[in-house]
Every structure is written in C-alpha cells, then in structure tokens.
Specification:
mainly alpha
Amino acid sequence: MPEFYDVPAVFTAKRNKQKSLLSLRGILWGVTADRQLNETEILFLATWLKSNPELNRDRDFQAIQRAIEAVLEDGIITADEKDGLYALLRKVLIDAGDDEKPQDIDGVVNLLLGFLQGVSADSHLLDKEIGLLAHIVATDAASATWPGNLLNKRLQRIIEEGAISDEERDELLELIKQITGEHFTETG
C-alpha cells in the first residue's frame, strides 16, 4: 500500500498551490504594510519560504522564491520590487486558472491569514497596520466568516473609542497570534 501515500497530493496539488500563493501574497502585504521591513520580518519571510518543501518542486514557486530572495538581499523592499513581486504572484495565479483576487471564501481566508501572519511576524502592531487590517476585515468578503468577523467586531470597538491603548494593541496582537498560530518571535 505505500504506493497510495502520494495519491492525495496529486488531487490537492493545485488547491495547495493556490492556498500557498494566496498566503504568501497576504504575508507580503502584511510585512510591507508599514512600508518597512525589519530583520525579524525578513527572517520570517525567508523561513516561510523554506518551510514549504512541497512547493520547492514547483517551477512557479521556485521563480517566486528566487525573486523574493533577490529582493531581500539588501534588506530593503522598494515600491517597484513589491509591485514586481505582486505582478509575479498575480501571473502565477492567473496562469494556474485562478483569479488574482480570491472569489471563494477559502481564498479570502487564506489571504487574510497570510496578512495576519505578516503583520504579526515581528510582534509589533503599528497604527498603519491596524488601520489597514480594520479596512480589510470591514469588507463584505472578509467580515462574512471567521476570522474576519471576529477581528472586525474587535476593531470596531477600538475605532469607536478613538485611540488604541497599549493594552488594546497587545490584546489585538495576541488575538492575531492565536488565530494564526504564529509565535515566530517566541519560537523561531
């Protein structure tokens, strides 16, 4: 029966690739939300790329990985480099027969989870990141299901108060880490 162990991967390969690409797009969006990359975010991104060995056999993913590694060589991601990475991700998704903007709820959730991983990678939430997150989870697609609906409720309370306290910022970060299961700065 060992010959059957690899069979499910064949049936799920396209979906797993789409899920990973949407997650990566979300992560890139998240780590660059404040327009800066710090060492922890760069390390998180490099670690994420290496932690998906099943994708390392995929030529599209290899091209994306090389492009990201080239961008990260100097530790800075310019607007042009970011646009180039998004264009490459968009091309790969479209070539695979998928829309660059997920239409199904699973795609929306994968993109949102990637974004949450990206903004929480360095264990700091900046106002710019929180504002962008509030905008994302307020959309119909994201607020229609978990975790967008949970985050939307939490963020609406914070926004109504007018300013976010350090305690609320820490609680929001902890909620995001619980949702994503990411504790990169604690566990590496």
